[in-house]
Specification:
Blueprint lengths: L2 H6 L14 H11 L8 E4 L9 H16 L3 E6 L9 H14 L7 E3 L4 H13 L3 E4 L3 H8 L16 H12 L9 E4 L14 E5 L13 E3 L1 H11 L4 E5 L6 H11 L5 E5 L2 E3 L6 H9 L14 H7 L3 H11 L6 E3 L1 H15 L2 E2 L1 E2 L2 E6 L8 E6 L9 E6 L2 E5 L19 E4 L4 E9 L6 E9 L16 E2 L1 E3 L4 E8 L22 E9 L12 E3 L3 E5 L9 E7 L4 H7 L1
Parallel strand pairs: 1-2, 2-3, 8-9, 10-11, 12-25, 14-20, 18-21, 23-27
Antiparallel strand pairs: 4-5, 5-6, 6-7, 13-24, 14-17, 15-16, 17-22, 18-19, 19-20, 23-24, 25-26, 26-27
Helix pairs in contact: 3-12, 8-9, 12-13
The structure holds adenosine-5'-triphosphate (ATP) and magnesium ion.
């Protein structure tokens, strides 16, 4: 974790942030000074449309779009769609939706590597003509044997010295569908003894009969990612190709292609990918979780995907702040997921309206309150932002409180409700518990009989009497029923990828409460609104399952220290 960046955040005045410098910016500053790219900054975000974007991609998006914006440059969105067997338009669509939601705009610069398939084919032909690429008939197993290991050099393929004419002829036949899938590949002719395995005559084209989501059945051969990626950056005139560290060892190969083809060279810069504890980030694993139904979908609120975080209640601002806070480093590290939660809490604390909701209701009847009376009590919408104003909440003879806020046999320092004891109802009265009603068979507490003290109405001159605890409540006849989903981490260990990650799934990562009672004002809540349920955390409507008349709320994140806050007031 980049400690200095975290300390740089001015907690008193969070808006007054200075974008911290980092090594990527230093490289760009230097390039601008030396006029390396004619003063231009042009980046790109290059997802492969084989899954939904996750919080790691968000780091890369914020970096690429953010850097372009701060240097008055531009950033492309480019789909690196070279593997039709794993790709899908569903992913293409979701990726665009997620980037837009994060607040970034590629304007008219949406590209696809598949737009360049004709050009890439021509480049491959050029390499063949230069004697720098050959068609190889070794099968996958043999290829592996010939490749050598990290400590032993590889061996030249017996097909390495085919003539240019034969290679051209075979490559055209590959294109024209004359050979079986996987029976031949086109390989770059580099160096089978190179200490860098990527340089040992890597495949650049393979035979694959798969329908591509954009080019349909036009192609039976597809370029390999490593061939297409660097060349696509070159075609687009990208100045700084920012990518994650694992591509460092691929850079010499990308440079080799550009040099041999004598085309424009972007500058590749590698940074450390984001890892979060208690989280898996590999798309392959996330896809498995979806396909094997460990979660309800890519946008399950427990997933680290952008769509999952959105559905859970995260805001774009909180994710962008998180990305800025973690900074960019050159060495791999793991960030504490609590920092992500902190970013959300910090954002919503400033602007989420407060409401009252009872998640596990216990009925309370005021024996001394008039039967049909209803009072409208004034409640503050956001103590952190008084411009948010106030609202009226109804109070009546029967209310619900949180089951947990009552103990028949309270431990020491239990400042909530217990027999014979008093507590304040938020924005209402001080009440006292007179008797407890239980289910005769189960012994379960079913309701409380209380009295309220009419002299203690909040906000009035007489309200001054102090009691130790304040609890939230909802008027029973006015309450709206809701389902509430509480989430915990999807994995129960810090590093789920250290073993069989599925064996580390947290069995209680989702708790569904079906009988919650919320303030009547929440009937008009909208999906993109976030609320603080007092003392319970930040919540939003579930975008998939909530319906008018059948509200479903997700808890985005808990409050850090609910008790300390309530008692201060
Ligand atoms: P795969 O596992 O399929 O290779 P990927 O996570 O690398 O997936 P891409 O679609 O290739 O997915 O990623 C698009 C861009 O996002 C790349 O530039 C990649 O470097 C960056 N990226 C991916 N994962 C992370 C991460 N955890 N942190 C930062 N950037 C990431
Ligand atoms: Mg990738």
């Amino acid at each position: 974790m980049n400690e200095s960046n975290i300390n740089n955040v001015n907690e008193e005045n969070p808006e007054n942030k200075i974008t911290p410098s980092n090594f990527v910016r230093e490289i760009i500053d230097e390039d601008l000074k030396t006029n390396k790219f004619g003063g231009k900054v042009h980046t790109r975000f290059p997802p492969e449309p084989n899954g939904y974007l996750h919080i790691g991609h968000a780091k890369s998006i914020c970096l690429n779009f953010g850097i372009a914006a701060s240097y008055n440059g531009v950033c492309n969105l480019r789909f690196d769609d070279t593997n039709p067997s794993k790709e899908d338009v569903e992913y293409v669509d979701s990726i665009q939706e997620d980037i837009r939601w994060l607040g970034f705009d590629w304007e008219d610069r949406k590209f696809y590597a598949s737009n360049y398939f004709d050009q890439l084919f021509e480049y491959a032909v050029q390499l063949i003509k230069k004697g720098k690429a050959y068609v190889c008939d070794l099968n996958a197993q043999q290829m592996k044997e010939y490749r050598g290991t990290l400590t032993e050099p590889g061996k030249d393929s017996p097909y390495r010295n085919r003539s240019v004419e034969e290679n051209l002829d075979l490559f055209i036949k590959m294109r024209d569908g004359e050979f079986e899938d996987g029976s031949r590949v086109l390989r770059a002719k580099i160096d089978m003894a190179s200490p860098n395995m990527n340089m040992r005559d890597p495949a650049i084209y393979r035979i694959l009969r798969a329908t591509h989501h954009r080019t349909g059945d036009k192609w039976r051969i597809y370029p390999m990612y490593d061939f297409a990626h660097g060349i696509s950056d070159s075609i687009e005139g990208i100045t700084h190709s920012i990518c994650t560290l694992e591509f460092e060892a691929h850079r010499p190969l990308y440079d080799w292609f550009l040099d041999e083809l004598e085309i424009y060279h972007p500058q590749q810069i590698e940074f450390a990918r984001l890892n979060l504890n208690y989280t898996v980030m590999s798309k392959r694993k996330l896809l498995e979780l979806v396909e094997q139904k460990y979660v309800s979908g890519w946008n399950d609120p427990r997933m680290p995907t952008i769509s999952g975080l959105r559905r859970r209640g995260y805001t774009p601002e909180s994710i962008r702040n998180f990305a800025e806070r973690i900074g960019v480093a050159k060495r791999d590290n793991t960030i504490n997921v609590a920092l992500l939660e902190h970013s959300l809490r910090e954002d919503l604390n400033k602007r989420a309206p407060r409401v009252m909701a009872v998640l596990r209701p216990l009925k309370v009847i005021f024996d001394n309150y008039p039967e049909n009376q209803v009072e409208e009590l004034e409640a503050i919408n956001n103590p952190e932002d008084l411009s948010a104003g106030t609202r009226n909440i109804p109070f009546s003879k029967v209310i619900y409180i949180e089951h947990d806020d009552f103990r028949e046999d309270p431990p020491k320092k239990f400042f909530r409700l217990s027999p014979g004891n008093e507590v304040r109802l938020r924005y209402a009265y001080i009440i006292k518990c007179e008797s407890v009603v239980k289910d005769e068979k189960t012994g379960e507490i079913t309701e409380l009989h209380c009295t309220y003290d009419p002299e203690t109405k909040s906000g009035t001159a007489q309200s001054g009497r102090k009691v130790k605890g304040t609890i939230h409540w909802v008027s029973a006849q006015h309450a709206v029923n809701a389902e509430v989903r509480l989430y915990d981490r999807l994995f129960s260990v810090e590093d789920p990828s250290s073993g069989d990650y599925k064996s580390f799934l947290n069995q209680s990562s989702l708790e569904t409460l079906n009988d919650c009672k919320v303030e009547p004002g929440l009937l008009s809540a909208k999906v993109d609104e976030r609320f603080q349920f007092e003392r319970q955390g930040y919540f939003c409507l579930d975008s998939e399952d909530s319906k008018p008349g059948a509200l479903v709320f997700n808890r985005a994140v808990q409050l850090k220290d609910a008790w300390a806050k309530i008692e201060k007031k």
